[in-house]
Amino acid sequence: MRILLVHPNFPSQLRSMAVVLGKNPAHDVRFLTKVPEGEISGIKKILYKPKRKPNETTHHYIKEFEERILEGQAAYEACLEARNGGFYPDLIFGHAGWGSTLFLKDLFPRAKMALNFEWFYKGRGSDCDFDPLDPITPDVEAAMRVKNSTLLTDLASADAGLCPTRFQYEQYPEHLRSRLIISHEGIDTSFFKPDSELKLVLPENNLDLSECKEIVTYATRGMEPYRGFPQFIEAAHLLLKQRPNVQIVIAGDDRVAYGKAAPEGTTYKKMMLEKFPLDEQRVHFVGSLPYGEYVKLLKCTTAHVYLTRPFVLSWSMLEAMSCEGLVVASDTAPVQEVITNGINGLLVDFFKPDQLAQTLNNVLDRPTDFTQIRKKARETVLAKYDLGSCLQQRLAWLSSLITAK
User: Do 123 and 144 meet the contact criterion of CB atoms below 8 Å apart?
Assistant: First the structure.
């Protein structure tokens, strides 16, 4: 079978699928991407690069759409060259919304195209109007509606699509869900697994917590309101006062991955630390960790904090659960799909840092009382989010698209 995988990043969420497909000599697999670095055995890259950035005078509602169109044009031209060289895929699988898949069905009309539809933007009822202190404006609400333009174009041309979680699936209007299924990318439970003998030592960060019995962790791509960073820092400020021996480790970059940028000239990290100073001897910002170091964090934590607005669920929460980490998470819809309070994790009000601090205090007082919750957390991931099972489901689904008339 001839297969075209598509994502501007490489290998992105498609790594596991690409590895499996690349091992099969019966497949001719190409990966359409902007990233020249990196390789996967059995996979040939098709590289593309947009010719320019959006025009500065473009209306701000559609500037991102123009950027996506430029992505799509570049992707089309790269694939046209591949087609002229004899490559015509039977199957296209990629990530909707980036623009790179926009025009592929026009170039390869006989190919079946299946896409990952991650998030449908709404002005009301999910992430945008979640925080009462940050009310949505008519301008933002209008911009959110237009922001779906690329997704809707992709959905119209795709033969089928998937959403990683039920919560994400339900963000799409009901009349658009008929060709979507729910299928998670999966968590590598053989890598993210418990190790009770491991000690938290991060040599690159000059951090040795091997003798510490109270470790609270927080991991994020960006230190931002969408992932509850301000609430976590306030809770950490309270917890440090209550527990003289606690150590707090924060992994992630001082940037915004989702949502509004901080005011010009500052960051959310700087703003929160000015408001709630933390003991630098007991709070460790370790940056974005390599996977080998990151997994140590999840295996050694006494309590792992995960906070999110009603938005895309981070893999980090499931990875922590897979390591039998005790996850203390926000009582928000994407989390509720996975965690039942007191069964496989603990839930707290997103907007109550004092409740988060008190819950962490209780856990640190009696860590052995939560052993069963930790075990149930891993059982949940094994049952519903194991990489092997999820990947098998996706591959079977893609195969059925090819054989369907």
Answer: yes
Q: pTM for this structure? A: 0.95
Residue whose tokens read 């000015």? 274
Q: With CA atoms as reference, report the closest residue to 28 among 43, 47, 10.
A: 43
Q: How many CB atoms lie within 10 A of CB 98?
A: 23
Give the residue among 15, 95, 70, 10 at the shortest CA–CA distance from 46: 10
Instruction: Determine the Cα–Cα distance for residues 233 and 38; give it in Å rounded to an integer.
Output: 36
Same domain, 380 and 394: no
Residues listed for the chain: 405
The CA distances from residue 327 to 174, 228, 264, 373, 374, in Å, are 32, 14, 34, 9, 8
Q: Could you read off the pLDDT of 380-402 as tens digits, one per residue?
A: 999 999 999 999 999 999 999 99
Eight-class DSSP state of 187: B
At residue 305, the pLDDT reads 98
Rounded-to-integer distance, Cα 395 and Cα 405, Å: 18
DSSP conformation letters of 230-249:
HHHHHHHHHHHHH-TT-EEE
Tokens of 191: 């890598």
**Which domain CATH number covers 149?**
3.40.50.2000
For the chain, how many structural domains are there in total? 2
Domain containing 81: what range?
Answer: 2-186+386-403
* 3-class secondary structure, 217: strand
Nearest-angstrom CA–CA distance, 98 and 240: 42
